[in-house]
Structures are given as C-alpha cells and as structure tokens.
Amino acid sequence: MDASRHNYGGSDQRPTRQAPTSQAQPQSVKYRPPHLRNQGTASGPGLHSPSVQRQGVGPSSEVCSTWRSRDPPSAPPAHRTSQLPSSPGNFGVELLKISGQQAKACDPKNIKNRTLPVTRPGRLTLEGKSINLLVNHFLVRFNPRLTIFHYSVDIKQVISHGKRPVKKYRNKADLRLIKDKLFLDDPARFPPNRTAYDGEKNLYSVVLLPTGQFRVELSDNEDLLTRTYVVSIKLINDLKLSKLEDYLSGKVAHVPRDILQGMDVVMKENPSRYRIAVDRHFYPSSFKAEDDLKHGIAAYRGFQSSLRPTSQGLALCLDCSVLAFRKPLAVIEFLKEHIPEFDGAHLDFNLRRKVTNALKGLAVRVTHRVTKQLFTIAGLTAKSTSDLWFDFVDPKGRDPIVKVSLVQYFREKYGKNIAYQGIPCLILGRNNRTNHVPMEFCILTEGQRYRKELLDEVAQEKFEEKCLAWPPERRKTISEMMQAHDGPSGDATQNFGLRIDKDMSSVEGRVIGPPVLKLGAPDGSLDIVRVENEKCQWNLAENSVVEGKQIDRWALIEFSSSVSLKLKAKDFIKNLRNRSRSLGICMEEPLVCHFTSMREFSSVSRLEELLRSVIQEARRKSWNTLQIMICVMAEKHHGYKYLKWVSETRIGVVTQCCLSIHANRGDNQFLGNLCLKINAKLGGSNVELTQGLPHFEEDDHVMFIGADVNHPVSKKSTTPSIAAVVSTVNWPAVNKYAARVCPQDHRTEKILEFGSMCRDLINNYFQLNKVKPNKIVVFRDGVSEGQFDMVLNEEVSDLKNAICDDSYQPTITLIVAQKRHQTRLFLENAGDGSPTGNVPPGTVVDTKIVHPFEFDFYLCSHYGRIGTSKAVHYIVLWDENSFMSDQLQKLIYNLCFTFARSTRPVSLVPPVYYADLVAYRGRIFQEVAKEFQSRSVPSSMRSSSSTSNFTTFDRSFYNLHPDLQNIMFFI
C-alpha cells in the first residue's frame, strides 16, 4: 500500500532478501610500515645547528619484557644503560650513535635525511620553589610483544537492476552500523570486542581477520527493502608495539605515529559505543538536572582524550568539555519549551516562521511505526494537518485512485489518532523522498548541537559557568570520567592488552620568581618595582610609563551624536588628558573634534572620505600629519573593519576605538588601559625589565619573532589564510614590535613567505639600530605535532635561505607555543596556590609529563582569575643559541611581563600574542577585500556554481601603509 507523489508515514513494501555471496579467505601478507617507506623531507640548504641531524631508524629488536611501566630518564632500562649517558646534555649525541648504528641495517632507498627536534639539555640551576602538582595524564601500560593489525575498510552499497551506480557511504553512523552487522553475524571470525573502528576507513584488531569482500544486508524493519552493501577489508600494516617501547626508551628517534594513531582509535572504541561523538569529543546521551538551560536546550558534560609519549611512559591525557545540545524531546514538547507562545493549536505567520527556523534541518525519528531510520526536517506543510489530502493508490491495482485524508490514513493504517490537527505536518526528507508526518509522532534525535551564540543572555551565562569550571570541580569531573563504564578504559581497551591507571600523575613543579620591573616615577625619573603579590600585578596609581610619547596632534571623532548615549566630549577629553598626564604621557587638546553618527560606517568610501576630511582639517592647523584619531562609537558595528582597513592601509594614521558608554563613565581603569594602548601605538614604552634577559649579554642584539597563521572555516574553500609575522625592533628592552601580514592559500599552515617577511623585518631592525641582530629567537604558534617536521625542515630552511649569506650568519632558536592541548595542572595541596585554586604564576613543569627526550616544558605564566588555568606547552625544535632548560623558561616568563597593554604577566609569550592580533587584523582586511571583490563581479556570476574567480586574492588589500609598518598599530 502506497500513496502517490508523497510517502505519508513511510514505505509499506515487503523486504526482498538476496543470497549472500561467498567470502574471500584471509591472506597472509607482510607490509612495511609507512613511516619506513618515507622518512620525510631532507633538510634545506644552509641549515646549521648544534641540534642533532639524524638518520631514519629501521626496525628494532623486540623487547622481551611482558609488562612495563616506563621509568623516568634518570633510571633508564637495563638493556640500554651502556648506551645512554648519565649527563642529559650528551643525550642527543648518544642517540645519534644509536640511530646511525641501526640505520645501517635499513634499505637506503627507504631512508631520507631529515632534521629532528633537539633533545632536552640540562639545567644550570633549579630556580624557584618546588610545588606538588597533579596532572590529568593517566599512565598506559601495554604489552610490547603484542602486534596490532591495521586494516583498511571500504563500504559500498549495491544497487540492483542497474538503476543507479554503486554509491560510497560516508556517514560515520551508517558505516559503523554496517560494520557492526558484519561482525555480529559472524563473531567467530570477526570478534567485535577485539577490534576497534574509527567509523571511516581504519580498523584495528589484535587477531587476524578475514580479508576480501563481504556482503552485508540491512533493513530498518520488516516493511522496508533490504539494502545490500559490499564491505572490502584489506590488511595494510602490522603494528608492533615493541617499536613504541623502543621510542619511549630513546632507542629510536622517529615517533611511530601509525602505532600511536592505532592505539588512539582503540582508546576511543569504548566511548564511541556508548557516547555521542562530536569531532574528537564524547558526550553522554543524557544530561544532569542542574545542566538544563531551559528552552529545550541542555549542557552536556563530555571529554576529549589523546595519547602522549612522556618521560614516564605512554600517557592518556583526558580533559572534560561542555557542549550545548537540543534535548531529545518529542517535537511538540521541544517547541513548547523553545518557543513560549507555541501552544499546538494554530500557527500565525510570525509563529510559523519561528517554528520553521527552530526545526528546519534537524534530525528526527518517527514513533508511529517501528524503524531505525532517521529523517531530516525539510520544512512545514503549507496546510494544517486536518486539511491534508492525497491520492491513494492500491499497490495491487484492484481499486481505483481515491482521495484520502492524512488523518484518516494514520487512523486506519497505524491506528493513531492525530491530536494536533490545527498545525502543519513536518516535511521529512530522506533518499530524495518526501514524507508528511504529524509533529506529535516525531522525536528529535540525540546529539544535535546548539550554537552557544544563539542562547539567550541567562542561558549563555549559565553555560559559560559550566565551561569555566574551577580547578577542584574540573579535577573531580575528570576523575569521574576516568572511572565511568563508558570512558576510555573498557573491555575493548583491555582486550588490546592496555591497562590505564585511574589516578592522575603526580609531578613536582617549580614556581619561578617574577622579574624586577622598571616604571616611571612621579618626578620623571625611573622607579624599580618588585612584583611580590600572588597576582604578580603592578599598580600604575603611583607610577607612570617608562617612556611617554608627546601627543600634540590628535583628533577626536565622535560617532554617537544622534543617539541617546552621545559622548560628553568635553568631560571625556578632560578625563583622558588628566589620566594620560598621571601616566607620564603629555596629551594636548585635540586639533579636530568631529561629531557625526554611526551611519558613516555603512560603506568604505563614506568612511574614507570622512577620515581624509578630518586629516585635511587638522593639517590646516598643523604642518605635520595627525599622530592618532580616537574614535568613539555608539555601539559595536560591522563597519569597524572598514575603519581599520582604511586607516591602516590607505591613510596611514593609527586609530583607537572605544564605546561611548565606557567613555562617559570616566572610569580610571578604563582610561588607564586606553592610555597604555595609545602610548604603545605611538612608539612609547610602558614597562621594561630592570635586568637583562637570561642567557644573553647586554651587547648582544637579539630579535624575537612571533609567527602565526589565521585560517578561515573549512567550508569557505575560496577564502585565503592569513600569515602574520612580528618582531622586536629594540634591544635590550624588547617591548616594541613591527609587523607584516600576508594572505596565502586556503588553510595552508606553512607560512609561504616566511623567509621574505623575516628578511624585511631584519632590514627594518638594521635601519633603526644600525646593526643586524646576531641572535634570533622565533616563536611559532598554531602548529600540532604532525606539523613540526614542516616547520623544522621547511620554514627554518626558508628563513635561513632568505637571511643568511657569507657576511651574516645569526644563530637561530625556534620554539613552538601550543595553547590547544588538554594538559591541566592541579594543586595537590590547595594551600600552595591562589584563592581560586589555580597554580600560581610562574609554575613550570619539565619532568614526567613532558616528552621522553625532546626539549619541551609547560609554563603557566598568568594569574588564573576565571576557571582553570591552562599552561602553555613550549616545544623547542631548533636551537643554535644553546639554551639550558632553566634559562629558556625564565626568559619566556620574563617576556610575559612586557605585554604593552597589561599590568600583569600574560598567559602567552608576547611575540606569539602579537602575531595572533596581527593575523586577526589581516582577517579583518580579508573581509573588506571579499566585499570589494563581490561588488566587482556581476550578480549573475556570483550566483553561479562556478567560484573559481574567488580563489585568487589581491595582495594590495593587505599591504600596510608605510607609515604604520614599523609601529604597533595592532595593539
């Protein structure tokens, strides 16, 4: 029985069974691991470093021990004691010898020279007081004699009668369902609990599985046609855990990424069976009562995890996360919660629009019949349920076509009486078929995200509180998730021979003391300030900036003259001048005061005309151009990007924006922050370090470089990424920066113009200081472990090729700063930290939870006021300046006190912080460029499917005005 044109309530045809085909027998094939086929790219010309230049390493001998909990580097395993030195400083040299000996046995065709990250040096001193910490790293014990078999899985649907070509399915839920059906039908050959599947192409097993092609038949219920799939399974690798043991022991230098990736899938197998998977996070199917955000939305507490090789062995790093989901309610109940005026009786025009916006695109399942199918809401029917009729067709052709109402059809076919007949039905779409189903028979499926930006103010505040959990609460939540039955430690994990400790790793950290600062004194001299409070904060109430700029050519543009919150201009100017004077910044009366409205932000041309007119008016009163324009806005406005692009690329005068609501209050702290930004933008110096930076001499000329790439969302495939590089221009204060920004190919992480941008900055340093820097420290942001090789072997090579010649050979250190990691530090004793429960500023950890032999550490440089502090993970990839561990840690911590617009140490080393700001400014320029580009293309071309013209970008949109290239316009 079927209905013509539309399928009301689902199909009623009987399933057709097909006989399964014969299954291929497994084959025994030996495969060479991928990391031995290609050992990476050769280091570029001009690379010279005391870091180890090492050969690729071949297969190592198997370890005979059955279970092993990794020992720290200070107590190496007995079988390698004779090969490892007692001094950590020579570790890299010995590792080179070991690697070279083993590489001789390898096929030279499969080995390529590559530069690897430097190894960890020793310390000069153990500066700082010790502090006992707990870290969310959980030790993983594994059997090094075990082999995990890696298979590729390819699933295609078989379409009979040649109606459609074979289709490849890519939905993870569908693919996992098909794979599970194959395994459940033949558990003897496909043991489910001894395998792990990533939901796409990769399958891991501790036993050999049959290979070949296998037919799987699925149906959602007895009334639907059976769908037939072909599952192709192929063995591609055997992962010997002995190689991971050798890497953790330092016997081989190349990380076995294929093994770690396979073990990571194994760790995620148990939660993937019981929890909702969102990207790399796992969330429960239910929420706690206190996490209800109302309006049909709830906060779900989940976790994310990753495997990390550490000095104490393989560790699972697990951190909790919070995400907002729609509750899995009946659609009617969801609408009653989500839209208060919805009563289920009828929909007027406005209410219909709200209901459509709330439901369109959501996934539902139906309750009037037994099925596992999921449907997507395409919209609402034009008519109400009681007015829906359709042509009923007898599938056997015995009865004529008759008109049947939807209400009658559901009553006779399914025995269901429709209660809400005055509202429309849902239009459900699946497989190019349309279904009209009453709302009361549809339930929202679980795991449907709700953007936090759409939450109302109350719900958003509540959600933020749950995301920013205090340390004791976060620590408790992490421990609970490790103990949970649906956590990473389950049957699947144990069947792979893995055992996870349920207790957090204990580690001894150190708290580095703050540096001594230099500020201005009331009498105009310099004052020495010792920061001794727990927040490491200094007060500008009794001090001033080190170097205040004379501001005698500035303009005030007030954009709030037509609104109720218009600026009290005279009071604002008076308060701003008084506050600047107290900070040692001499600010005269403005040359121009221009009053207008926010309408000026409506277009680029209109705003540019306004700014040029203000500049022209100022020139009539002074021969020199304006130093700065202070723009007071009535509200935050999308035209802000027009202002910044015009002023920084076309006109060449810096701007400082603020809101009139804040300006009218005349708050001392607000005015102080405004003055710090203005002084830094104009080349002043707000704070300096009294003593020189560790490891460097006063007569050294050291340049600090920060580099970052800002990527657009992946869906915007024609939008460029933005590369930004900043560098210091003064020594030894190192608190003034110049910046360069450049667009590049979409989502390309490598900075394509890195060498030329750095060369330009070095030439600028030479023009200002009459000498080139002889030492360079580069901080790179935004790269993961998998991109270290690219940074080390490509970007560093590009840098050296661009700046080095016979007469100029600076020593270079390259450090990666990682913010996006899951490692969290907790106080073992609450009394050791701040009242918030966070670790104190200056906390550093460089043992146990760090890499087994490479040079890295965790540094928490800021005071945690909200939530749980996150330390930054610093990884040294390249070091020609021969840093000791404590020297580099102290240097980075001291630099965090030099951030221009803060009176406390910041969480991230300033070169990286500034590079982030510049990259974001480049993203603003890109948005303006995109608008110009779209206007220049006819609407007919913009609406067409071809967007190849948008893949290019005009670099002139991103070129900074020459007057702003070497000042901190981005603060």
UniProtKB/TrEMBL annotation:
Sorted UniProt keywords: Repressor, Ribonucleoprotein, RNA-binding, RNA-mediated gene silencing, Translation regulation
Name of this chain's protein: Protein argonaute 2 isoform X1
Gene: LOC105175853
UniProt cross-references to InterPro entries, sorted A to Z: ArgoL1 (IPR014811), Argonaute_N (IPR032474), PAZ_dom (IPR003100), PAZ_dom_sf (IPR036085), Piwi (IPR003165), Piwi_ago-like (IPR045246), RNaseH-like_sf (IPR012337), RNaseH_sf (IPR036397)
Example GO biological process: regulation of translation
PANTHER family, per database record: EUKARYOTIC TRANSLATION INITIATION FACTOR 2C
Origin superkingdom: Eukaryota
Biased composition (Polar residues): 16-28, 80-89
Record family assignment: Belongs to the argonaute family. Ago subfamily.
SMART domains: DUF1785, Piwi
Residue ranges annotated for the Piwi domain, each copy included: 628-927
Segments for region (Disordered): 1-92
This protein's GO CC annotations: ribonucleoprotein complex
CDD domains: PAZ_argonaute_like, Piwi_ago-like
GO terms of molecular function: RNA binding
PAZ domain span: 330-446
